[in-house]
Amino acid sequence: MRRKCTRYEGLMERYLTGEILPDERDDLEKHLSLCPDCSRVYRDISGVECALRTFPGKMVDPPPYLKTRILASIEGERKSLWAFLTRTVTAFAAILAIFLIMAVYGYLTRPSSPPSPPVAGEKAETGTKEVKIFFYFPDARTVSITGDFTNWDPKGLPMKKTGKKGLWEIDLKVKPGVYSYNFIIDGRLLVPDPQAPEQTPDGFGGMNSILLVPKGDVS
């Protein structure tokens, strides 16, 4: 469309709606008969306007198969979601079962607890040696011994008096090795063995006695 034809665009709209003036109508009709571009534009506009006037003013019912397809699509999505949830729950249950199996296996194969040291009145275990220990403390009412072989039990193993005044004794049955120990006087005073050949700091400002049980014939 040429530039001078642009003024006829508004006239075309008013021409179709019947609002154009007589002089303008004559001018437009003359121009349309001479200008093929404007004539083509007018035909297109009038065709659209005619189609709009003849378009039915009522709702068109959808085809009967449309509802079936929509419901089938919704059902398919629902089944897909259910399948996903089922797979997720199944996988979680499998993982949980594996953890339970590992826990049970770990419990059944756990290492056994180390044997407790012998205490007074118990039968000594096989592979131990008997060691007699003496301690002189004439003012003590009770004396007991504690150390690595009792897991440092605060009560310790009670010692008994000998025939000599102030002399206490005990028979220990322990496995060969090196043990730290001390004596407990009257249930409250912890003292090292002055006759021990070796002592070591206890880490609390005191000393521990050292008992060396050599390897050899064991009971």
Write the layout of secondary structure elements.
Elements: H1 7-17, H2 22-34, H3 36-54, H4 64-108, E1 129-136, E2 143-147, E3 157-158, E4 160-161, E5 167-174, E6 177-185, E7 189-191, E8 199-201, E9 207-213
Antiparallel strand pairs: 1-5, 2-3, 2-6, 4-5, 6-7, 6-9, 8-9
Helix pairs in contact: 1-2, 1-3, 2-3
Description:
By secondary structure, this protein is of the alpha+beta class. The protein is built from four helices and nine strands, in the order H-H-H-H-E-E-E-E-E-E-E-E-E. A hairpin with a 5-residue loop joins strand 4 and strand 5. Helix 2 (22-34) crosses helix 3. It is rod-shaped.
Q: Can you identify the CATH class of the largest domain? A: Mainly Beta
Which range does the strand content fall in?
15-25%
Tell me the helix content: 40-55%
General form: rod-shaped
Which runs of at least 5 residues are low in confidence (pLDDT < 50)?
113-124
CATH-level-4 superfamily name of the largest domain: Immunoglobulins
Instruction: Quote the average pLDDT.
Output: 78
CATH architecture of the largest domain: Sandwich
Query: What is the CA-based Rg, rounded?
Result: 55 Å
Q: List the secondary-structure elements in sequence, H or E.
A: HHHHEEEEEEEEE
Distance between the termini: 124 Å
Structural class comes to alpha+beta
What count of domains describes the coordinates?
Answer: 3
Count every beta strand, where a strand is a DSSP E run of 2 or more residues. 9
Number of contiguous helices: 4
Taking the sheet with the most strands, its summary is: 6 strands, antiparallel
